[in-house]
């Protein structure tokens, strides 16, 4: 049974690895659907907590796979999920880079790079929507996220730590006034 669990973890994270165009944030929606809705290994609140832990921990944002693997199957699950997420995409990137590097000045190469940008953006947006849906943050969470996004867009050099502090203060104020 445990081997089947590890195989299923690999079968979830290998395809996510190969379709993670746009970086680690692109896998959030797929990981949530598979681990919460399809396999029912973890609940929606647990997924949100694992996401938060993976973002707070040092290292790549895709540590979500490691956290899910750990939660589902301990050390072996963490190892399988991590390798399943990082190894296939790393190998694919290396192969594609080696095959196309000599052609980077050609128009088709530029078109390919520019064409993948909206795909990555869409995958990241799907992950964001997925997290909003399952976190139950409500209107204030959506307003806070939009305000943070707008602030960082309009003032790119604005300290990200200040945005985090402002969001935390908004959450504390909401909890104080609604509780």
C-alpha Rg, in Å? 19 Å
The low-confidence parts are none
pLDDT averaged over residues: 85
- Taken as a percent bin, the fraction of beta residues is under 5%
List the helices and strands and how they pair.
Blueprint: H1 2-18, H2 28-38, H3 44-56, H4 63-100, H5 107-135, H6 138-154, H7 160-178
Helix pairs in contact: 1-4, 2-5, 3-4, 6-7
Summarize the structure.
The protein is built from 7 helices and no strands. The protein is an all-alpha fold and 179 residues long. Helix 2 (28-38) packs across helix 5.
Characterize the structure shown:
The N and C termini lie far apart (about 45 Å). Helix 6 (about 140-155) packs antiparallel against helix 7 (about 160-179). The protein has about 180 residues and is mainly alpha-helical. It folds into 2 domains: about 1-135, no CATH class; about 135-179. The protein is built from 7 helices and no strands. The longest helix has about 40 residues, at about 65-100. The relative contact order is 0.12.
List keywords for this structure.
mainly alpha; 179 residues; 7 helices
